[in-house]
Amino acid sequence: xxxxxxxxxxxxxxxxxxxxxxxxxxxxxxxxxxxxxxxxxxxxxxxxxxxxxxxxxxxxxxxxxxxxxxxxxxxxxxxxxxxxxxxxxxxxxxxxxxxxxxxxxxxxxxxxxxxxxxxxxxxxxxxxxxxxxxxxxxxxxxxxxxxxxxxxxxxxxxxxxxxxxxxxxxxxxxxxxxxxxxxxxxxxxxxxxxxxxxxxxxxxxxxxxxxxxxxxxxxxxxxxxxxxxxxxxxxxxxxxxxxxxxxxxxxxxxxxxxxxxxxxxxxxxxxxxxxxxxxxxxxxxxxxxxxxxxxxxxxxxxxxxxxxxxxxxxxxxxxxxxxxxxxxxxxxxxxxxxxxxxxxxxxxxxxxxxxxxxxxxxxxxxxxxxxxxxxxxxxxxxxxxxxxxxxxxxxxxxxxxxxxxxxxxxxxxxxxxxxxxxxxxxxxxxxxxxxxxxxxxxxxxxxxxxxxxxxxxxxxxxxxxxxxxxxxxxxxxxxxxxxxxxxxxxxxxxxxxxxxxxxxxxxxxxxxxxxxxxxxxxxxxxxxxxxxxxxxxxxxxxxxxxxxxxxxxxxxxxxxxxxxxxxxxxxxxxxxxxxxxxxxxxxxxxxxxxxxxxxxxxxxxxxxxxxxxxxxxxxxxxxxxxxxxxxxxxxxxxxxxxxxxxxxxxxxxxxxxxxxxxxxxxxxxxxxxxxxxxxxxxxxxxxxxxxxxxxxxxxxxxxxxxxxxxxxxxxxxxxxxxxxxxxxxxxxxxxxxxxxxxxxxxxxxxxxxxxxxxxxxxxxxxxxxxxxxxxxxxxxxxxxxxxxxxxxxxxxxxxxxxxxxxxxxxxxxxxxxxxxxxxxxxxxxxxxxxxxxxxxxxxxxxxxxxxxxxxxxxxxxxxxxxxxxxxxxxxxxxxxxxxxxxxxxxxxxxxxxxxxxxxxxxxxxxxxxxxxxxxxxxxxxxxxxxxxxxxxxxxxxxxxxxxxxxxxxxxxxxxxxxxxxxxxxxxxxxxxxxxxxxxxxxxxxxxxxxxxxxxxxxxxxxxxxxxxxxxxxxxxxxxxxxxxxxxxxxxxxxxxxxxxxxxxxxxxxxxxxxxxxxxxxxxxxxxxxxxxxxxxxxxxxxxxxxxxxxxxxxxxxxxxxxxxxxxxxxxxxxxxxxxxxxxxxxxxxxxxxxxxxxxxxxxxxxxxxxxxxxxxxxxxxxxxxx
Length: 1170
Description:
Elements: E1 6-10, H1 18-22, E2 31-35, H2 43-54, E3 62-64, H3 73-83, E4 92-94, H4 102-112, E5 121-123, H5 131-142, E6 150-152, H6 163-166, H7 177-183, E7 189-191, H8 200-206, H9 224-227, H10 231-234, E8 250-252, H11 259-270, E9 279-281, H12 289-301, E10 308-310, H13 318-329, E11 337-339, H14 341-350, H15 356-367, E12 376-380, H16 388-394, H17 398-401, E13 405-409, E14 427-431, H18 434-442, E15 450-455, E16 462-469, E17 474-480, E18 492-498, H19 505-522, E19 527-533, E20 547-548, E21 561-565, E22 571-576, E23 586-591, H20 596-599, E24 603-608, H21 612-623, H22 627-633, H23 637-655, E25 658-663, H24 672-676, H25 736-744, H26 759-764, H27 766-783, H28 788-791, E26 793-799, E27 810-815, H29 818-835, H30 852-867, E28 872-879, H31 890-899, H32 904-914, E29 917-923, E30 926-927, E31 931-933, H33 944-951, E32 962-967, E33 970-978, H34 983-998, E34 1009-1013, E35 1026-1027, E36 1030-1031, E37 1033-1034, E38 1037-1040, E39 1043-1046, H35 1052-1074, H36 1079-1094, H37 1098-1101, H38 1107-1124, H39 1131-1143, H40 1155-1158, H41 1164-1167
Parallel strand pairs: 1-2, 2-3, 3-4, 4-5, 5-6, 6-7, 7-8, 8-9, 9-10, 10-11, 12-13, 18-19, 26-29, 34-37
Antiparallel strand pairs: 12-23, 13-15, 14-15, 16-17, 17-18, 19-21, 20-21, 22-23, 24-25, 26-27, 28-33, 28-34, 29-30, 29-31, 32-33, 35-36, 38-39
């Protein structure tokens, strides 16, 4: 191992198993501080620690063994013997919560008496020590060889013995412990928080009592009543602070009920000129302002030494606080810090806060139209036409003119009223369906009518989505997409409602609730705000999720105007003066909603800094490591690999510096953990076998800094794997040059896998790590086994779509080992060279010189060539599999690989790679227990796509009129129908269903769709297609491998989508131009970001595009030319160059009868000169 001495070894910092942590115990020899807290260690491990303490030289200075329940008396004796060794230089020993016994205390006391004794700090907090143990430690403190400076003994709780048991007992002929401590010049700190001991000598010592050195020890009879631990009376003995030999610098009496009387006696020692106390802590000691006066008086008498005073947790009043704060401000006194008093004064200052009303209104005035929710004025106008003069006067008031929305009910519009007469400056007017709709229903009666006035500063993108006018209810729904809105809301849907007093309340509420629910389904990401004059109606009865925010009376003593929304604490209603002679007050709705992004606390991100010095130090450490020692000390490949990767991770953690940053969490609606809670009894099923999972337990099983999810248990399939025969020569070997080249290509920004080895380490230290990993890789191929640590994976559910409705909306992506990915990349070319000649020619995924464009072009060529004949049409079935990669059966895959001439040793290696894979799920901050999986290939592995292609290689069509085109798990079945005969097409669909059943693949009938391309003039309804007794949906368009195909084979939807994406990226090009980037960099940005979008699948759709669509594409290129100030290749030139590059050279032309076939990919290259 490396001879470099480390600063600290903390086993709890490494995310590995307990066995992996125990393997790192020998590293104690080469570290200055060892933290072995909470570890389950055996006697052999304690012998290793003792050996490290007595080694020559011994580097260990601090040892923490806290919370080790396995620490026995024999182990303490072994460690104490090591501390007595002349080579031991241990200075700090922590044994918190170790359940020490009397025998352990005897061993520690012997170590304290040793010569030389270097121990300065001994921490025994949390141990329930009995009287004999305390007596032995106190005896060790009397020894002149003991140089202990700090002894911590916190939270010990020992019940006092009855006085009758103590009567008649004599104290031994030795000075009490406080006398011993007063004579020790090295003793500095004694913490006394919550300390209650029954030992006689230990009692006085624990109270910090000191006698004068000249006082001789005396024999005295002590009873419990005389020496009970009551610090308010024991503080009388603190006159030892006046001693000429007082070395006490820190005194901590926190959490003891001293009261004012105890502090008064304590202050008598502080007043002495001989007192050298520098820090005094009296936290939560039941002090009052009287204690402040005593302390202030003592500090004025002796102002030179005390620097820090902590009085937190005491009920101090203003007068007492002022006495002590004056001492801090006076430079004559040495007091520098009054801990917690500063917070106390700050709370006093903040006690008088502004009210909610003033705060919300002030925030609204400050932000104007950039509030989280729109500011609204709601009024029952009682004839808006007569109130226009008053409204124009109100526009001079800032609160009214800067409001986002004005909502009016009972507008009483008349037919002769022009729209221009109702306009307000800076606002857009939206009426309920115009005058004709209102008059057609309500006639000439004076009543009803609703309208919105939307501020142009807040929103200009307003659309009327629904309106209704009947004697029961009138409403107007508009959709607003403002310039500024919280990211949790895509838009705001405002609804103005008027329900007349004589209307049928039940009918009105049903009609309004139905409309609101329809709007919610149509706009799921929008926030619906319903407001208006409801009279006696109440929307909460029909829609309990909606909350009503207007609580003040709006007409006499009744609240008739309402405002509803689903967001909690959205608005605060303030009544304003009524408009004119209206009998309803005007209501100002002030937004009080706090957007979720501002409520989330910033997260702390810790990253490693790969400085040149750190990289050089890491390379030196790995270069001087004896890797043969690892191989010789382990028994098999699993242990060898696990030990090596753990050591690499250990070196990386200890050497590389870190940087901590606070990051604002980004809000997302995809709360993956919340979806799993209602699905706790969700069970995974697979066709072909009945695998039932255990119910999920959301209790975290282990703490991980980044996450922690529910356990996921999957039963292994009943297929029994063939036994692994004895090792045979591998089909190929991996050279060090290949491994070194692969490590150098790794992306350093990728995350490390479960083994903790980061790609940056492999890349920067490729020369040092290549030999050991080359040996591991070749050993794995030779033995046909994959190390378990390299097969372990972390499953992270990634949302497939913005809104999550169930578990099927997630894609389980596996975070695997970077070392394993490197090995897979080395095996992939060899496996491809064997299987590529035998692959199905209609499989286009992961093959040289094939792409999605080739798959789409071949599919369209087959369809258009067939449709060139009369009386023909085509049916296209876009098949969708459920978790396709997770259903691979390793035993069945091994048989298929053997049929493809893959060597037997490589087949066994792949089978072992896919079986017994340990994995756990990570959701947010929760990590599940790990389980063993023997089905499927994890999405995230390099070999998974190719293995799935080989798994489905035998799935082909047996009829020439049916084409089965595959791109990995995207499968498309094209039926070329002539004369209405669909027999071959339906037979192939049935064969596909049967093949999936025999190969454990599940068809998703809900996501499988069919599209019919038929250009016949006279057509009859075609019979529907069913898949596993489920009817298949017939779609008018489908996104096939990134290209939208419609039933009429028009390309306008695809081109419009590409133009929209390119125009969005034009904004960044203009911003770069403003920053005065050179033209060369602008051209690179255009080629990589904009041109790549415009030419996406251009060989598929450009020839069939209309002249108008081509002109739209060229406009984007011209706009980029104006921004950059240089010439760019046209869309036509780009298409010709891409077509020539892909088509190659044609030997003969293709005869076509229709223009749509002539303008497709295959016939066109001859026309453009390929």
